Q: What sequence folds into this?
């Protein structure tokens, strides 16, 4: 990206996306399963085992931590596009789950779009060594 404004916007989107998924992943990891199932908007958790929820939370947390680290650690910057693509994959799975349950999936679409923008915009970093 050549434009400083565009780069600043991408950094902001990447940071916000990372923080959002760090929080979501942490919530899934530390909240007891029964309490999570009882939460508003969390009815989908009944379709998954406690271990699956922990796995989903761990994947979200790790992808978000890596995406955030890419803003500060040059060594990890190269893989930004891959981690953003991983968040896209998680959002596809989430959307499929919500559609199957007849629940709103627009938030998943929004997060997918943000992650896809970061993945596409940062794909040139994969080519550097």
A:
């Amino acid at each position: 990206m050549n434009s400083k404004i565009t780069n600043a916007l991408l950094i902001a989107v990447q940071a916000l996306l990372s923080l959002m998924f760090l929080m979501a992943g942490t919530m899934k990891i530390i909240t007891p399963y029964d309490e999570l199932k009882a939460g508003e908007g969390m009815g989908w958790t009944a379709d998954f085992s406690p271990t699956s929820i922990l796995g989903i939370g761990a994947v979200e947390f790790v992808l978000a931590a890596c995406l955030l680290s890419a803003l500060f650690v040059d060594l990890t910057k190269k893989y930004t596009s891959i981690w953003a693509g991983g968040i896209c994959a998680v959002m596809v799975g989430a959307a499929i789950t919500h559609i199957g349950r007849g629940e709103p999936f627009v938030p998943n679409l929004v997060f997918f779009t943000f992650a896809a923008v970061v993945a596409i915009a940062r794909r040139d970093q994969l080519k550097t060594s």
Q: What stands out?
A: The mean pLDDT is 93. Helices lie at 4-30, 33-38, 50-69, 74-77, 80-100, 106-121. The CA atoms of residues 31 and 56 lie 13 Å apart. The chain is about 75% helix and 0% strand.
